[in-house]
Design a protein that fits this description.
By secondary structure, the chain is of the alpha+beta class. Strand 21, helix 13 and strand 22 form a beta-alpha-beta unit. The longest helix is centred in the middle third of the chain and has 14 residues. The chain folds into two domains: 229 residues, Enolpyruvate transferase domain (UDP-n-acetylglucosamine1-carboxyvinyl-transferase, Chain, Alpha-beta prism); 210 residues, UDP-n-acetylglucosamine1-carboxyvinyl-transferase, Chain (Alpha-beta prism). It has 14 helices and 23 strands. The relative contact order is 0.16. The radius of gyration is 22 Å and the shape is globular. Bound molecules: uridine-diphosphate-2(N-acetylglucosaminyl) butyric acid (EPU). The site of uridine-diphosphate-2(N-acetylglucosaminyl) butyric acid (EPU) has 28 residues, from helix 2, helix 6, helix 7, helix 11 and helix 13.
Length: 454
């Protein structure tokens, strides 16, 4: 791949990683090694947890992605000292935390969904909080009703305003009895981050139990919290008066690891993902194998490649321990090359299959049924928002001009373009930086043929 030769190396690196438009010449297998750091969907939450401590926290393996930058900036406007001690190691000092002014917080409106998790810690610390309009990927309505209902049960007063949400807790927060309508990841984190310092005990039923949540529980326990859980999605939290800082290494990003695994499958490549672990990826690995993938679990990572022709699979996304919604988009790219008809039933978000239109433009044969798959006996109670994609393969892919719609969809477009014959233009790739660290460098390391053209 080519870069302007007159710039110093560091400037080249910055402009390359910040590019928005890629020209990709496909048809080449991705081969080589990439390393994954801490999970986007954990590290950002652990950073918020640092607000609860009375002393400094150290978070290790923090990925250099824009969601982390947003949370860092929000912590800083609240007076938390954040220092990157060395690559991926953040020191977070909450001892000077203060109320931020509206303009500073509002500057983060629309940038990420994580700010909603500041509610509990800020209410404990300052008795009030202001949360700007939330951003994140446009993959559905993404309401926050579970969060706000839970916060009210803890005793918070919630005032929705046109520019955001103002919360206060004049009498402090107390333990609560909460049953989530659905095991929401974010709402479970909200309850954990609020209950640990609330007066009394909290019982949370129908909680999410994703590995990233278990790692957040581990962080909170290191800080002095008392949290126990039962097999049936019940979590008990005994509130404590004070918490201290933590020193913790983030759980690896299993979504990124699964993405590279699918890239190996789609391009008929061979990718070693350093830092990937088996335990947290069991469900993914089963589907990967059924689809014709082969993997070797090694001490320091997992090697992914094909095992002959790709085979069709039938997958339903679900909460953990099911097949994660974040895995389906890169998998669908690989399934366009499977010999037969696959189905992917999305049960978590109502608009996470729209990205398939661009794959069809590249030669795929994917039909999306907006009402999901009819079945009277569903493992997960049927939700109104389900969709199903039927993917008929194998279909050779060809180059196209496509615009990235969201994080995982965007990653999938890049992989599809790399698997396709001919040249593609992929626009709006900046979104991919929200969740994939050093994305262009990793593509280069795997032998991808592309240029940053805008
Ligand atoms: N939901 C509600 N009301 C709420 C909260 C959620 O109706 O108050 C609904 C959502 O609209 C959605 C479902 O419940 O239909 C699941 O949402 P959940 O709260 O579990 O998701 P989240 O916390 O907003 C996190 C990840 C997502 C990941 C989901 C599911 C972060 C920052 N985001 O979102 O990650 O898909 O859990 O595992 O942790 C990604 O990484 O690309 C991504 C979108």
């Amino acid at each position: 791949m080519s870069t302007p030769s007159s710039e110093p190396a560091s400037a080249q690196q910055t402009s390359r990683e910040e590019g928005e438009i890629l020209e990709i010449r496909g048809g080449r297998p991705l081969v080589g090694r990439v390393d994954v750091k801490g999970a986007k969907n954990f590290a950002t939450k652990a950073m918020v947890a640092s607000l609860l401590g009375e002393t400094e926290s150290v978070l290790r393996d923090v990925p250099d992605i824009s969601d982390v930058a947003v949370v860092r900036s929000l912590l800083e406007v609240h007076g938390v000292g954040v220092v990157e001690e060395s690559e991926g190691v953040l020191r977070l000092d909450p001892t000077g935390a203060v109320s931020a002014n509206f303009e500073e917080i509002d500057a983060h409106a629309g940038a990420s969904r994580i700010p909603i998790l500041f509610c509990g810690p800020l209410l404990h610390l300052l008795g009030q909080a202001f949360i700007p309009d939330l951003g994140g990927c446009r993959i559905g309505d993404r309401p926050i009703d579970f969060h706000l209902d839970a916060l009210r049960k803890f005793g918070a007063i919630v005032d929705k305003q046109p520019s955001g949400i103002r919360l206060s807790a004049p009498e402090g927060l107390h333990g609560a009895d909460i049953e989530l309508p659905y095991p929401s990841v974010g709402a479970t984190e909200q309850v954990l981050l609020t209950a640990v310092r609330a007066r009394g005990t909290t019982e949370l039923r129908n909680a999410a139990i994703e590995p990233e949540i278990m790692d957040l529980i581990a962080v909170l326990q290191k800080m002095g919290a008392i949290i126990s859980y039962e097999p049936n999605r019940v979590i008990f939290i005994e509130g404590v008066d004070k918490l201290r800082g933590y020193d913790h290494r983030s759980i690896f990003d299993r979504n990124e690891a699964a993405s590279w695994a699918c890239a190996a499958l789609a391009t008929d490549g061979d990718i070693f993902v350093g830092g990937a672990k088996q335990q947290e990826m069991l469900t993914f690995l089963n589907v990967f194998r059924k689809a014709g993938g082969d993997f070797d679990i090694q001490e320091d990572g997992i090697r992914f490649r094909r095992d002959g022709a790709l085979r069709p699979v039938s997958v339903e996304t679900d909460v953990h321990p099911g097949f994660m919604t974040d895995w389906q988009q890169p998998l669908i790219v690989a399934l366009t090359q499977a010999e037969g008809v696959s189905t992917v039933h999305e049960t978590v978000y109502e608009n996470r299959l729209g990205f398939t239109q661009a794959l069809n433009k590249m030669g795929a044969d994917i039909v999306v049924h907006p009402e999901g798959i009819a079945s009277p006996e569903r493992r997960v109670p049927r939700r109104a928002l389900e969709q199903a994609a039927v993917i008929s393969g194998p279909t050779p892919l060809h180059g196209a001009d496509v615009v990235v719609p969201d994080l995982r969809g965007g990653y999938s477009y890049v992989i599809a373009a790399l698997a396709a014959n001919g040249t593609s233009i992929v626009r709006n790739v900046g979104i991919i930086r929200r969740g994939y660290e050093k994305f262009f460098d990793k593509l280069t390391a795997l032998g991808a043929d592309f240029d940053v053209i805008g």
